[in-house]
C-alpha cells in the first residue's frame, strides 16, 4: 500500500489525526510533515516540509511513495485576518502546489474546509450543503477557493479530492493557534485552573462545534468511503453541536459550580463569528457516507474536563 502524508502534522487537527491514521494503517504507513516546530517525540516517519515550495513536496511524495495526502497546513481565521498576504500564500499557494504534485503522482487529497467558507448572506440556520458562499474574511476566501480548486482538479484531471467543512474544533491535545472558535478550548483550561474565563465573543454567539475525535473519524471515513456513493466530493458540511459561549458556561457549571464567565468582546473575532453559520445542515454527509457524531455538548464537556484535569496536574 502507498503511504499517507499529513502536512501541518503538529497543528490542531494533525496532532490527533496522525496517531489515528498510524493506528488504522500502521506506524510505517504515515509520514508526518512539520514546518516551524520539530516534533519532540516521534514514533513514526516524519519530514521537514515547506509546502510553499513545490519541489520539496514532490521529493517527499516520491521518496516515501505517497498515495494519499491530508493537506492540513494552513493559517486559522484570526491569524489570517492579521496577515492576509501570508494567509493567501500558505492556504492557497500550498494547496495549489499539493494539488499539482497529486496530479503528477496520482495521489488522493483531503482538504479541510470550514464554516469560514460561508459569509454574511449565507442562510444562518440549517445552512444547506449547496448555498450562497460570499465570505468576507481572507480565511474564508481561501477556504471557498480551496473547495473550488479541489473540485476543478477532480473534474479536469480525475484527481480523487475529498473534504469536509469543519466547524469549530475542540481538543485537549493542542492549544489552538488563532481561530475565532478558540474560546471553546481556552474556556476549559481557565475553568480548571482559575474557575473563571473572559470570553472574547458575545454570550449569544451561536456557532457549530465538534469534539476532535469526531473530526478525526470524519476525515478518515470520508477518505475511506466508496467514491461511487459520493455525489459531492469536497466540502461536506459536518457538525456535532450548535452552541453559544453562555450554553457552554452553563454546561461547565454542571461540573464546576463556581465557574464564572465574563465577556470582553474582541470586535475582529466577533465580526468573523457573526459572518458564519449558526447551524449547518449536514444531512448530505449523513446520507452519502453515513456521517454521525458521537459527542454532543454534555459528553464533550465531561471528556474535555476529565482529559485536561489529567494533563494539567
Ligand atoms: N476553527 C476555525 C477558526 O476559528 C474555523 O475553521 O479559524
Structural overview:
The chain has 313 residues and is of the alpha/beta class. The chain has two domains: 3-168 and 209-237, 3-Layer(aba) Sandwich (Rossmann fold); 175-208 and 241-277 and 296-312, UDP-galactose 4-epimerase, domain 1 (Alpha-Beta Complex). 43% of the residues lie in helices and 19% in strands. The chain has eleven helices and 14 strands. The strands form four sheets. The chain has a seven-stranded parallel beta sheet, with helices on both faces. It has a three-stranded mixed beta sheet with strand order 8-10-12. Strands 6-14 form a two-stranded parallel ribbon. α1 links the parallel β1 and β2. It is globular, with a radius of gyration of 19 Å. The relative contact order is 0.14. The structure holds serine. The site of serine (SER) has 11 residues, from β8.
Question: What is the secondary structure topology, with strand pairs?
Answer:
Blueprint: E1 3-7, H1 14-25, E2 30-34, E3 45-48, H2 54-63, E4 66-71, H3 77-82, H4 84-105, E5 108-114, E6 125-127, H5 138-157, E7 161-166, E8 168-170, H6 183-194, E9 196-199, E10 207-211, H7 212-224, E11 236-237, E12 241-243, H8 245-253, E13 260-263, H9 267-274, E14 279-280, H10 283-289, H11 297-312
Parallel strand pairs: 1-2, 1-4, 2-3, 4-5, 5-7, 6-14, 7-11, 8-10, 9-13
Antiparallel strand pairs: 10-12
Helix pairs in contact: 1-7, 2-4, 4-5, 6-8, 6-11
Amino acid at each position: 500500500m502507498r503511504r499517507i502524508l499529513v502536512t501541518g502534522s503538529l497543528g490542531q487537527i494533525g496532532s490527533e489525526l496522525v496517531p489515528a491514521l498510524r493506528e488504522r494503517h500502521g506506524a510505517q504507513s504515515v509520514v508526518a510533515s512539520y514546518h516551524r516546530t520539530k516534533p519532540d517525540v516521534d514514533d513514526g516517519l516524519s519530514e521537514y516540509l515547506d509546502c510553499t515550495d513545490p519541489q520539496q513536496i514532490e521529493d517527499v511524495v516520491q521518496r516515501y511513495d505517497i498515495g494519499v495526502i491530508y493537506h492540513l497546513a494552513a493559517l486559522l481565521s484570526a491569524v489570517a485576518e492579521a496577515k492576509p498576504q501570508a494567509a493567501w500564500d500558505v492556504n492557497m499557494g500550498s494547496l495549489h502546489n499539493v494539488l499539482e504534485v497529486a496530479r503528477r503522482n496520482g495521489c488522493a487529497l483531503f482538504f479541510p474546509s470550514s464554516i469560514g467558507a460561508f459569509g454574511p448572506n449565507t442562510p444562518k440556520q440549517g445552512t444547506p450543503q449547496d448555498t450562497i458562499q460570499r465570505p468576507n474574511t481572507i480565511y474564508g476566501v481561501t477556504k471557498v477557493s480551496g473547495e473550488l480548486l479541489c473540485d476543478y482538479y477532480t473534474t479536469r484531471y480525475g484527481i480523487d479530492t475529498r473534504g469536509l467543512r469543519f466547524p469549530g474544533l475542540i481538543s485537549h491535545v493542542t492549544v489552538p493557534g488563532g481561530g475565532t472558535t478558540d474560546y471553546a478550548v481556552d474556556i476549559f483550561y481557565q475553568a480548571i485552573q482559575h474557575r473563571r474565563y473572559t470570553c472574547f465573543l458575545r454570550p449569544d454567539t451561536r456557532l457549530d462545534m465538534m469534539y476532535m475525535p469526531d473530526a478525526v473519524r470524519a476525515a478518515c471515513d470520508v477518505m475511506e468511503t466508496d467514491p461511487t456513493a459520493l455525489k459531492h466530493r469536497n466540502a461536506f458540511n459536518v457538525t456535532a453541536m450548535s452552541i453559544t459561549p453562555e450554553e457552554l458556561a452553563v454546561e461547565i457549571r454542571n461540573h464546576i459550580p463556581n465557574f464564572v464567565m465574563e465577556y470582553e468582546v474582541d470586535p475582529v473575532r466577533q465580526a468573523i463569528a457573526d459572518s458564519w453559520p449558526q447551524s449547518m445542515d449536514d444531512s448530505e454527509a449523513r446520507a452519502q457516507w453515513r456521517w454521525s457524531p458521537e459527542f454532543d455538548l454534555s459528553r464533550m464537556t465531561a471528556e474535555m474536563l476529565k482529559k485536561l484535569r489529567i494533563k494539567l496536574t
